[in-house]
Amino acid sequence: MTSLVLIFQIFVCISLGYFVGPHLSQTIKQFIFKILPYFSYILLISVAFELTQALNHVQNPTAILPPALLIAFTTSIGSFFICLITYKLIDRQSVQGKISLHLFLNALKNIAKAFLALGVGILFGVMVNSSGLTISFNSWYLLLIFIFLIGIELAFTQFDRSWLSWKILLVPVAAFVGSCLASLLNYFILSNEYSLNEVMALAQGYGWYSMSGILFTELHSAKLGGIALLTDLFREIFAILLMYCLGWRFPRSAISSAGATSMDVTLAMVKQSCGTHYVPHAMMSGLILSLLAPLLISLFLSMKF
Fold first, then answer.
1. Residues 205-227: pLDDT tens digits?
2. CB-based contacts of 261: which residues, under 8 Å, 6+ apart?
3. Could you tell me if 280 and 255 are in contact, meaning their C-beta atoms sit under 8 angstroms apart?
């Protein structure tokens, strides 16, 4: 399956959900909004299961953890500081929020659920591999259902023209620039095992682990798919930590480090730690990066340098 076909399928599903959403009955809409937060865990279980089966044929699968941690940490920090420097130069205004211990504990609970889902999928995959059974499963189609449901959710999001101001759009730009600059540093460390275009592609998931793991596996290999999955899972964790530690003081930078997750997973944390004033920044940055992530991953993987 070529990258263009994959991208086309993603945009068809999110567009279909966006246009179908307003025509659904109230009962169906409430059901979708209720299951959507849990769907990502189901998808994560399926991705972990599929990758465990595929990694069974990869030599030394534990080697994917160090590069995943390195890329996740450097891209998160890179996005944070590029955004910080940018706004220090052009806009010193800062609206501070308050930190809630309850919300912080809830965030840790969500992280634990993500790792639990990952562990369940891995355990199931190991059990299937050890039993000698062969189960044919493709997480890609489950991901398309998830993207369709996200499109329905977007149909009920209230957009405002002020959300397209250049000050808001600089947040996702800083995330992209910071991730790319971090990739150059990572390449010098990982150049013996990975090419520059692979390292650049791994930096373009922006925390959307349920998408990146599948996309890398489809377009490249199970090994890179595993690295992408862990990279974006760790990137989400680093973003949450930055949000609560520094979001009250540097809200736009924290949102930039959150990447695509600022539109969904970390949005509640943006409201609490950064302030309601910065919700448009989070929504637009997350939306733009979510749309760009599969395109940028496919673009960098198709290049050879």
1. 998 887 888 888 888 888 888 89
2. 206, 207, 208, 236, 239, 286
3. no
Q: How far apart are CA 198 and CA 216, in angstroms?
A: 10
Reduce the DSSP state of residue 232 to 3 states and report it: helix
Can you tell me the distance from the alpha carbon of 17 to that of 258, in angstroms, rounded to the nearest whole number? Answer: 24
User: How many domains is the chain built from?
Assistant: 1
Q: List the structure tokens of 134.
A: 């062969």
Residue 145 in tokens: 């259902």
In angstroms, the Cα distances linking 127 to 56, 124, 145, 210 are 12, 5, 27, 22
- What is the C-alpha to C-alpha distance for residues 33 and 13, in angstroms, rounded to an integer? 17
Contact 234, 69 (CB under 8 A): yes
Range of the domain at 53: 3-302
* pTM score of the predicted model: 0.76
pLDDT, one tens digit per residue, over 226-274 is 899 889 988 888 888 888 778 778 889 999 999 988 876 677 678 777 7
Residue 110 makes CB contacts below 8 A (sequence gap 6+) with 265
Say how far apart CA 242 and CA 257 lie, in whole Å: 8
Give me 180's structure tokens: 């790319």
